[in-house]
Specification:
Elements: H1 6-25, H2 42-50, H3 68-76, H4 94-107, H5 119-131, H6 147-153, H7 171-186, H8 192-209
């Protein structure tokens, strides 16, 4: 059994509490009235990019195309920053992330006229991201070169993904994209040799579990 860092076990313990907090936030007050001279919301997007948040995912690349969940998610969750992939966080982490985002949106000055989801839309968003969240490794990870680098580097920003989350052919692009995010957010990156080891490890592990 993989022994994850204490913070991951803590996340699992508080997941039900975080989910209840999010659902409670669904009863939040309605958005403030639009101001006559509202500054562009694009200012928020530019600010988020300046502090290193990822550029985001194109709306047509999100899973669940055509569903009401993806429509509401797209409508609201790309207003202040790049549209995040639902796989950016695990089902354990998403409730707390959404709660934090909604509190920030409600705390903005009314002059921004930022659209805020109502209680029904918040439930739809929560259900959508939980359905398509990062699949966390729940069983013993295969041994082999690159395993330690994978466990160390890929747990810096999120819980360890299950190698079967992506196909053998897709892992290289995923790891390279994650490395770019690490540079943007953490201002650091593992050396190229470790990146290559992680890619090869995940390709092998994905093939073993397919």
């Amino acid at each position: 059994m993989v022994r994850f860092p204490m913070e991951f076990r803590w996340r699992s313990a508080v997941a039900p509490i975080a989910t209840m907090c999010v659902l409670a936030a669904c009863q939040a007050a309605p958005p403030a009235e639009d101001a006559a001279q509202a500054p562009p919301v694009a200012d928020l997007v530019a600010a988020s990019a300046a502090v290193g948040l990822p550029i985001g995912t194109a709306a047509d690349e999100l899973p669940g195309q055509g569903s009401e969940g993806v429509q509401v998610y797209t409508q609201y969750c790309g207003e202040c920053h790049g549209l995040p992939s639902p796989a950016a966080h695990s089902a354990t982490d998403w409730p707390a992330v959404l709660r934090r985002m909604w509190m920030r949106a409600e705390g903005l000055e009314a002059s921004y006229a930022l659209p805020v989801p109502d209680s029904r839309e918040r439930v739809l968003i929560l259900q959508y991201v939980l359905e398509h969240a990062l699949q966390v490794a729940q069983t013993e990870l295969p041994s082999g070169p690159g395993r330690d680098a994978f466990m160390t580097e890929c747990s810096r920003c999120h819980e360890l993904p299950d190698p079967s989350q992506h196909s053998q052919a897709d892992w290289a692009a995923v790891v390279i994209r994650m490395r770019q995010h690490a540079v943007q957010i953490l201002r650091r990156s593992p050396p190229q040799s470790e990146v290559q080891d992680i890619i090869l490890y995940l390709e092998r592990a994905s093939a073993q579990r397919s």
